[in-house]
Amino acid sequence: MHTEDTIAAISTPPGCGGIGIVRLSGSNAIKIAEKIFRSPKKKKLAQTLSRRILYGHIINPKNKEILDEVLVSVMKAPDTYTREDIVEINCHGGIIPLRQVLELVTSKGARLAGPGEFTQRAFLNGRLDLAQAEAVLDVINALTEQSQKTALEQLGGGISKKIEALREELVNLTALVEACIDFPEEDIDPMSLNDIKTKSLQINRSLQKLIDSARYGMILREGLKTAIIGRTNVGKSSLLNALLEHDRAIVTEMPGTTRDVIEECLNINGLPIRIMDTAGIRDVKNVAEKEGVKRSLRAMENADLVLLILDGSEKLHKTDRELIEKSNLKNTILVINKTDLPQKINLGNVLPAKAGNQKKTRIPGQARNDARAFNIINISAKKGTGLDELRNKISETALQGPAESTTTVVTNVRHVRALEKARASLDSFISQADKNTSPEFLSVELRDALDAVGEIIGITTPDDVLNRIFSNFCIGK
Question: Which domains does the chain have, with CATH numbers?
Fold first, then answer.
């Protein structure tokens, strides 16, 4: 990783637009830009104040040809994104001017930046810790306003502050234990040992609280995978269109219209929902339809939430019963569709007789302590009735209880793994402390927990992990 050279990249999306930006960062950023920039008033980039914008033209030094009319932003170290000198050349947002400007700056000494290299330099130069750097990508990829709010909170150091506080507590705990190694003639008195155990249990609870927040956090970051499942012509595609409020899936009376999984993202009460319309489940001989059914069943198995659609205007089919049985280990909402038509469906011989709208019920044949509870919602996708009730039930099921929007949550799988590793080391420490294990062995467990927590903010993160993290960024950020 070279941090002494100057990097450059196009920082705006490819294609045509009003403005496109070529960004440079490094000790020679201003010097390189100066070679190709001309101000009508003879102003120099090196002499301008930081955070100022100069108007002018990009000139090809070889033939003095004007390539573009631009605005150039100058930001001088250390008060910049990377803590290096940064120049941003605001061009017209076409492919040709951006490419020409990028070719010019690289010919004058800049190097093409790698994916995420600007943010990587911000991390290496102490502008951001690793958790904040990862939050930059989360802000860019936010699926809903709530997702963006959570990502911005983490970019501002929300999760980092909690991790730093945990590290400080672990450091203090480690110091107490290692004092016994440095002064072996002074054994840990029972009172101090009890204090150490109490403190370690408190830290463990804090770790567990962060781990528990990850389910909500991962939904905000990646969306809740929701599969619409059912036999043919029960209204799966109609429900997708109704929830999206536009015609995304083809709807016909002919069975088997949907042959592949159609995925869309929608916002339900601030939660990003990745909703999948699937092919109808039925016995088929056509190769394409067989593959569609196979994909539907796979989507059902992999989904976080299943919307199992039943046709309320028809009697319960054998396929309906089979799908209810298959869904007994998933978070499932039974959606009775076509309630605008005379109702013929009877769940009495599949679900307990007392089952009704939104009632939690049990599948017969299962032991009560293994009971799978269903939520039942009545809708008409055609008329739009019951959809708000369904949306509320989806978000309620996703959250599995209210979630405070102001509470810091873990949104990153890497963070969860590090927290689990730290908790496992702390569990081992507590177990060994109960057995009066030698302080040397206790110290090893605490050091492991300390390293695991440090991985989250980049204190103890290996280089290969860093490279993998920043490789997910776009070039130019």
Answer: 7-126 (3.30.1360.120), 134-213+412-457 (1.20.120.430), 224-399 (3.40.50.300)
